[in-house]
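INFO batch 0412 | record 1 of 1 | parsing
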Amino acid sequence: MAAEGHVAEHAPTAGEYIIHHLSHLQNKKQVGIVDFSVFHIDSIFYAVVLGLIACFFLWRAASKATSGVPGRFQAAVELLVEMVDTQAKGIIHNAQSRKLVAPLALTVFIWILLMNSMDFLPVDLVPAIAGMFGIHYMRVVPTADLSVTMGLSVSVLIVCLVYNVKIKGFGGWVHELFSAPFGDKIFLYPINFLMQLIEFVAKTVSHGMRLFGNMYAGELIFMLIALMGGAWTLSATGVGLFIGHIIAGTVWSIFHILIVALQAFVFMMLTLVYLGQAHDAH
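INFO prediction complete | emitting tokens
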């Protein structure tokens, strides 16, 4: 028993630290590689809260908008709206569709930007606070969770399918599935249909995986930098590690600002591109 107690109390190794910080708060233990009955409660919670915050600020900006000289907050939101609207006009030429697509793209951009920005919180801050309440696992970056990013990309796919049917009609879309990209020939129908399925799957998977891969890597690098700071001691090597931890953390945080904004912008642009393709006839 003494040996077991000693093992339980030892400080975690670097591998144990990273594995613990990469573990989600789940509703139950996962069985097998794929278990759709398991929910990542932390990812759902932060995604929903940040989504509500994004919607609140957009609503606040719209409700307080004036025709006179705008305040700083209104000006910032207007710049974002103009940026997204300009991109939407260049990709989607249907003015009626843009009434829904442009606000959707703006919401996606701000929502993902907020979720990505959770990566700037100190690695151990929120997990430590959660631990005080008996919650031993807590990840705060929803976009570093593949289930969240794939959920977003699947949602975009569903919207694309809806617009395919809305713009082309159900019959027209089905005809396109079998006649593009190689031509309206009966013997090419199976190949065309297979290529269309591959295209939809590839776009959806790459859409979600791109965002997940970048944010997961960023989160992992922050953990490695945190390990440098945690390994400091009152020695030349220890002090060097602590100084390196501060320098590396500062440099990576500054660089990560670009990644956070860029990944939100790329996801939004791909959403517009895929929706634009749904309006195009082959």
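INFO post-check: The CA atoms of residues 25 and 40 lie 6 Å apart.
INFO record closed
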